[in-house]
Amino acid sequence: MFHIILFGPPGSGKGTQSEKLIAEYGLIHLSTGNLLRSEIANKTALGLEAKSVMDKGQLVPDEVVIGMISSQLDAHADAKGFLFDGFPRTVAQAEALDKLLKLKNSGIGVFLALDVSEEELVKRLLGRGLTSGRSDDTDEAVIRARITEYNAKTTAVADYYKQFDKVVNVPGEGSIDDIYASLKTQIDARMH
Ligand code: AP5
Questions:
Q1: Is 29 in the pocket of ligand 1 (CB under 6 A)?
Q2: Catalytic residue among 128, 144, 153, 184
């Protein structure tokens, strides 16, 4: 099994690149943001609780997202590997993932971190908000709150994986195809 974590701030291109990567490598795409939006669309109790947190640009509680990921791993027990997008976002989530996957020394394949400047992130997300219907994209203050939350709580996740020598930083500005080619180079170097 080969697992990839695609990491980066809101708007860095995780979702865009994930679509291309799962098609190439046949991995199961697990996006906690997508799973949460599906709960909201289905008006579940979990979705109702998560929506108010997400609309403020804050993180949903660890136990909620860890529970969702645990169910998905069980549902795809025969997968050849997973591409995690937007998860883990805290060190507690990273430690939980190691336990769920029964990994020693965070034995994921690679942790790819997309680097994008804050002004580019805000520009992209305000642009997407015009058409996506995502309620956390329409207000610049909420977008900046998401980035602040990322800097405060999520960047520590990269330090967690650095101790296991899993982190590769990839420039996330430029053409989508060029960024994809850089990601692919890094994955191929570790997969084969
Ligand atoms: P989530 O859904 O994970 O959103 P996010 O991290 O804020 O990331 P985005 O989906 O906004 O951006 P992305 O990096 O996928 O970029 P994309 O490819 O779409 O999380 C949403 C919320 O859910 C969180 O705030 C939190 O509340 C909650 N949540 C989720 N996971 C959680 C967890 N693990 N723990 C706790 N809470 C959790 O691209 C963005 C835009 O840019 C698009 O319009 C795209 O077309 C464009 N674009 C992409 N690449 C390029 C490029 N190279 N050049 C120009 N434009 C580009």
A1: no
A2: 128
Q: At 161, which CATH number? A: 3.40.50.300
Query: Is the CB–ligand 1 distance for residue 16 below 6 Å?
Result: yes
DSSP H or E segment with residue 84: strand 82-85
Q: Is the CB of 87 under 6 A from ligand 1?
A: yes
Structure-token pair, residue 135: 């309620």
Residue 179 lies in a domain: no
Q: Any idea which residue has 């058409």 for tokens?
A: 131
Residues of the binding site for AMP: 32, 37, 58-60, 86-89, 93, 134, 146
C-alpha of residue 98 to centroid of ligand 1, in Å: 23
Q: Give the bridge partners for 84, in sequence order.
A: 5, 30
Tell me whether residue 134 is in a domain.
yes
φ, ψ of residue 94 in degrees (nearest 5): -65, -45
User: Closest Cα to atom 52, ligand 1: which residue?
Assistant: 176
pLDDT in tens, 118-152: 999 999 999 999 888 898 998 999 999 999 999 99
Q: How far is the CA of 107 from the centre of ligand 1 (A)?
A: 25
Report the alpha-carbon distance of residue 61 to residue 122 in Å, rounded. Answer: 24
Q: Which H or E element spans position 82? A: strand 82-85
Domain-located, residue 177: no
State the total domains in the chain.
Answer: 1
What is the predicted ipTM? Answer: 0.97
Residue 107 belongs to a domain: yes
